[in-house]
Design brief:
Strand content: 35-45%
Shape: globular
Radius of gyration: 15 Å
Number of domains: 1
Helix content: 10-25%
Strand order of the largest sheet: 1-4-3-2
Distance between the termini: 30 Å
CATH topology: 2,3-Dihydroxybiphenyl 1,2-Dioxygenase, domain 1
CATH architecture: Roll
């Protein structure tokens, strides 16, 4: 199997609200709208993130992002009106910490830093 891209997708009951939340979370507007029911960000290389309009609200997704500076991201998100709990250390790792929360539709979002 040869892969070209990896798509991470969130199905949203409230497309406008979810798009707004994820734009604030990622710190920028989407890169493209390949169709009216999809807003898409290029995250890194061949990894794309999408918010998809889904009035049925499939939900239940988990998005985990490994960031360079978790404290700086928590501060940035707080300034954007997104509450993120304080990070906790992950047992068994020297410096790995994470913070877990949910988006407005209950999808799990985790940020982690360290190794």
């Amino acid at each position: 199997m040869r892969l070209y891209d990896v798509f991470l997708s969130i199905h949203a009951k409230d497309f406008a609200a979810q798009t707004d939340w994820w734009a604030r979370f990622l710190g920028r507007q989407w890169d493209r709208a390949p169709m009216p029911s999809c807003h898409e960000w290029s995250l890194t290389g061949d990894i794309l993130f999408q918010v998809l309009d889904s009035s049925n609200g499939y939900g239940g997704a988990t998005v985990t992002l490994h960031v360079a500076d978790l404290d700086a991201e928590i501060a940035r998100l707080g300034a954007a009106g997104i509450a993120v709990p304080a990070p906790v250390k992950v047992d068994g790792f020297d410096t790995l910490r994470f913070s877990e929360f949910t988006d407005p539709e209950g999808n799990t979002v985790s940020l982690l830093d360290g190794r």
